[in-house]
Design a protein that fits this description.
The complex is a heterodimer. Chain A has 16 helices and no strands. By secondary structure, chain A is mostly helical. The longest helix of chain A is centred in the first third of the chain and has 40 residues. The mean pLDDT of chain B is 91. Classes of the chains: A mainly alpha, B alpha+beta.
């Protein structure tokens, strides 16, 4: 609002058509014009960051639809409940400690200042001196403890919300992989721990001024930070849980367990595709470099398209049919793969990265089944495998011009040099995220158990965990107005057949 | 010829089906049904209020076989569909007057083998 008023005053003053009330005010000085322009700039950037964050928030809907669609109807309520509550849990734990660990000033391992509830000093949207180019009209210098994210000229709460929706995405990834057999409360506890401790620590290494980011490791929007960390956490969970009953036969047979709604799954992936236009382009966290945003958005879309086509072709050739669930996984694979490199590679490269991601995801789905790692929705193949692939691809297709103009994070390294740095980061993130997740999963297993009983799994988690079912419309239960056996008569006399509802008896 | 109808738990279908094929049953008809026995279903909870779901999802399997196979089929179903818990279902055996294979017009035992 403030920015708008200043902006309007600025325009009016420049046009020499100031209204009567403004004529009595002092004529604008260079300082007041600079300040007004700075506020306008902050407003525009903030709107972009928050709108992008809202798009990423909407990805929760996408994940809920994909995951419930690819699982059986008897577990639909449970999966929806998990996907729903996970963002609420993430909000609380990222606010409580996650943000501080990730972006607080500290050492190369984790943030140590302003840890809890964003309580540290911060005068955002003031910028650090090195990033004066982002908003040359601001004269205020950043003073605070979240200096690793002081390069974006937006207020602290805009930064927080944008980073929060990313943290939430990471936790949601786990939900699909462990679906149809995990105890609801165990998932909830693990989600809190993941977003409070694991996600922010690896995030600090990369985005919070920690050991990887400071050593030229690059990950623009989170192929590693968000997707492979979620993937590693999911893999640890799947290994602790074991496969769903009946998934792998005694004779080594792989039994497919088809999902119950491809309609829901396809709609979910379309929503995720849309959400990614906030995820990657929004990671500029500033609106004024239009060509950077456009480059990133097109790179993102290109990889989604070639990912879908790559998976389509691979499934058709390898499995005999253009399986829709594989096409959907392929689109997501391309999106995950391009998330790190979208601001570091050309549009042509992003098309190749997406295509290879789409091929990779089909092979990964088949491969995970071969080694009896049961992942009902393909979350490991999409987020873990392609999170790693995308992080590596940033090095393999690194383009210093794009990195300078779009990401503004050029390293000046050669492709092979960048690839080696990326590889090192992949190993660091993988070892820590997997090991820490394994420790947390085992802690949860020892204290409260992770897996529902065999009987509950067969009957469905909807009934066991939540006490009802997702699709109860079949006339099987005694409702207040039903005619089931043993029904006590309703308190009011039912209308006689054919009698209009308004008739007085 | 006898018709054997078995109402079983849905997740037991695959196991029962494979076991029947293994003892020489040639075909079967399966339908998703709802029903209850002595336990009268279970209660579910919706927004704090309980309600009774008496008709639970079951699978009904129908097989028509020659008389000499009947005992084997019944025992096979009984053994493979059993979990030992309430709701395992029932097996019904009844006489069949005649069977006609539509494509060839064969009748009786010839139509079910």
């Amino acid at each position: 609002m403030k920015a708008w008023i200043f902006g309007a005053a600025l325009v009016a003053a420049v046009a020499g058509a100031a209204p009567a009330w403004a004529e009595t005010a002092a004529p604008p000085t260079v300082e007041t014009l600079m300040s007004a322009y700075s506020d306008l700039r902050v407003g525009v950037d903030t709107v972009w960051v928050l709108v992008a964050a809202m798009l990423v928030f909407f990805m929760n809907a996408g994940f809920a639809l994909v995951e419930s669609g690819l699982c059986r109807a008897k577990n639909a309520t449970n999966i929806l409940a998990k996907n729903f509550i996970v963002f609420a849990a993430s909000t609380l734990s990222f606010w409580a400690v996650g943000w501080g660990l990730m972006f607080g000033d500290g050492n190369s391992f984790m943030g140590t200042q302003g840890l809890f509830f964003l309580s540290g000093a911060d005068n955002s949207p003031a910028l650090g001196e090195a990033y004066a180019a982002m908003n040359p009209f601001s004269t205020s210098v950043y003073e605070g403890v979240y200096s690793s994210i002081n390069w974006t000229p937006v207020p602290l709460w805009a930064k927080f919300f944008f980073q929060l929706v990313f943290a939430g995405t990471c936790a949601t990834i786990v939900s699909g992989a462990v679906a149809e057999r995990i105890k609801f409360k165990s998932f909830l506890v693990f989600s809190f721990l993941l977003v409070a401790f694991i996600y922010p620590i690896t995030g600090h290494w990369i985005w919070g001024g920690g050991l990887l980011g400071a050593n030229n490791f690059r990950d623009f929007a989170g192929s590693s930070v968000v997707h492979s960390v979620g993937g590693w956490a999911a893999l640890a969970g799947v290994l602790v849980l074991g496969p769903r009953l009946g998934k792998y036969g005694k004779d080594g047979r792989i039994n497919p367990i088809p999902g119950h709604s491809m309609t829901s799954a396809a709609l979910g992936v379309l929503i995720l595709w849309l959400g990614w236009f906030g995820f990657n382009p929004g990671s500029t966290m500033a609106a004024m470099n239009g060509s950077a945003i456009a480059h990133i958005l097109v790179a993102t879309n290109m990889a989604a398209a070639t990912g879908a086509l790559g998976a389509l072709a691979t499934a058709w050739w390898l499995l005999g049919k253009p399986d829709l669930s594989m096409i959907l996984n392929g689109c997501l694979a391309g999106l995950v793969a391009v998330t790190a490199p979208c601001a570091f590679v050309t549009i042509g490269s992003s098309a190749i990265i997406g295509l290879l991601g789409g091929i990779l995801v089909v092979l990964a789905v088949v491969g995970f089944d071969k080694v009896k790692v049961d992942d009902p929705v393909g979350a490991l193949s999409v987020h873990l495998v392609n999170g790693i692939w995308g992080t590596l691809a940033l090095g393999l297709f690194y383009d210093n011009d794009v990195a300078t103009n779009v990401a503004a994070l050029a390293t000046g390294l050669s492709r092979s040099g960048q690839t080696l740095v990326q590889l090192k980061g992949i190993v660091y993130v993988g070892v820590f995220a997997f090991a820490a997740s394994m420790v947390f999963w085992l802690l949860v297993k020892v204290t409260m158990g992770v897996r529902v009983s065999e009987e509950e799994e067969l009957e469905g988690l909807d009934l066991g965990e939540h006490g009802n079912s997702a699709y109860p419309d079949f006339a099987t239960h005694q409702s207040a107005f039903g005619h089931g056996s043993g029904l006590t008569a309703p308190a009011t006399r039912p209308l006689a057949a054919g009698q209009p509802a308004t008739a007085k008896s | 010829m006898k018709k054997i109808e078995a109402v079983i738990k849905p997740f037991k279908l695959d196991e029962v089906k494979s076991a029947l094929l293994a003892i020489g049953v040639q075909g079967m008809t399966v339908s998703e049904v709802r029903g209850f026995g002595r336990q009268k279903g279970h209660t579910e909870l919706y927004r704090g209020a309980e309600y009774v779901v008496d008709l639970l999802p079951k699978v009904k399997l129908e097989v028509v076989v020659a008389d000499e196979l009947v005992d084997k089929v019944v025992v096979t179903i009984k053994d493979t569909a059993k979990t030992g818990r309430i709701g395992d279902g029932k097996v019904f055996v009844s006489d069949v007057a005649d069977v006609i294979r539509i494509r060839t017009g064969e009748r009786g035992d010839a139509a079910v083998n």
